[in-house]
Amino acid sequence: MNMFKSALCGASIIALTAIGAQAATLTVTDISGAWSNVVGGQQVNINNGATSTVRWGTPTNAQSGYDFTPEGTPLDAAQDVDFTLGTFTHHNFPITAGTGISSASLDVTFKFYLGSDSSTIYTRTSQFVFNHWETGNSDNPCADGGTEGSGVNINGCADQVTAVTNPNSTDSFEIVDGNITRKYVFAVNGFDIGDEFWTVENQTNQATIKARFTYEENIQPAPIPLPAAAWMLMAGMGGLAMASRRRNRKS
């Protein structure tokens, strides 16, 4: 009996270890971005390809614009560790006054599976909305309150990008696998832009979108069947008890 208990405990430890190993990974299989809802601007061009871009303005040499470049996939992520889904880039080039945009939206869609179950793919989309201030290059003072020709305004007054909608949200997923229910929490932390940033004229500025996941296990073990020998032993003990009661009645 002690040997049976020892073997059972060992099997349980192995099973729990296997469950933990399976649940401790997330694999992102695809990431894409799509620009839309551009407000204002002239000569606006949107290209939602591998790197999604939006360009605007009557250029001096090149148009101003935004890019979204997704991380390469498949992308494996460990629990409770931030990982990057993609990079937002602002290109600030001189354009004719009055031809800049005032806002644009970016939908970031990503697909992933949990643990080793690659047959079940989850899809999530997060929307980011940016307000844009295409400032006059020779304003005095500049839009940020600084002086043209110094600091962030070294090449002319810097342009401002503000994250109006920069979601920091979570989704929960419950996966039932046999007699085990696992709860996963997936969080998109948003672009690390803060409330805003200023981009130097004739330069670019970048921010990355971060996410992370964690999980909880709710283990509901199924009843463990007794070996046939144990059932036979219990039946035998029951028979002995009945025989004992009969003898007691006769006496």
Keyphrases for this structure?
18% helix; 251 residues; VPLPA-CTERM; 2 helices; transmembrane; alpha+beta; disordered N terminus; 7-stranded antiparallel β-sheet; 6-stranded antiparallel β-sheet; signal; THxN family PEP-CTERM protein; 48% strand
- Strand order, largest beta sheet: 2-3-4-6-13-11-10
Q: How many domains comprise the coordinates?
A: 1
Structural class computed from helices and strand pairing: alpha+beta
| Topology, number of strands | 13
The residue ranges in which pLDDT falls below 50 over 5 or more consecutive positions are 1-23, 221-237
Descriptive account of the structure:
With 251 residues, the chain is an alpha+beta fold. The chain has one domain (9-223). The chain contains two helices and 13 strands, in the order αβββββββββββββα. It has a seven-stranded antiparallel beta sheet with strand order 2-3-4-6-13-11-10, with no helix packed on it. It has a six-stranded antiparallel beta sheet with strand order 5-1-7-8-9-12. A hairpin with a 3-residue loop joins strand 2 and strand 3 (52-56). The longest helix is centred in the last third of the chain and has 23 residues, at 228-250. It is elongated and about 70 Å long. The two termini are 36 Å apart. Residues 1-23 and 221-237 have low confidence and may be disordered.
